[in-house]
């Protein structure tokens, strides 16, 4: 999966019509929003580490972060859907499974501390291997 994922990222970054080129590059407003989002992710990590994360997306620090991301561009509309608790399906299980909640927190923390694309990809692959529902 890693090689395919890296190839997909390179193709995306090289596409001059992609959101990466038209939205991220040289866009000071977006870069300011990323600071706010980063600080929100830090709060999510703290909540998970301090066992105060709760058992629902609504009203959580994660909802605040995902909402801030979704507000950045229409392409992210619906981004929050993956984090809504669906009790009948038991997904996402980060709300009831402490091991998965902690793993999600470690994933976010590792991504914040990453300094290279390779490290981010490695963290995504590690999280995927845990097969957390949702």
What does this structure look like?
With 134 residues, this protein is an all-alpha fold. Helix content is 60%, strand content 0%. The chain contains 6 helices and no strands. Helix 5 packs antiparallel against helix 6. The chain is globular, with a radius of gyration of 16 Å. The model has no long low-confidence stretch (mean pLDDT 84).
Write the layout of secondary structure elements.
Blueprint: H1 2-14, H2 19-24, H3 28-49, H4 61-70, H5 98-113, H6 117-129
Helix pairs in contact: 3-4, 3-5, 5-6
Give me a quick take on this structure.
This protein is mainly α.
Strand proportion: under 5%
Mean pLDDT rating? 84
Give the number of helices: 6
Main sheet?
none
Head-to-tail CA distance between termini? 19 Å
What's the count of strands?
0
Provide key terms for this protein.
134 residues, mainly alpha, 6 helices, 60% helix
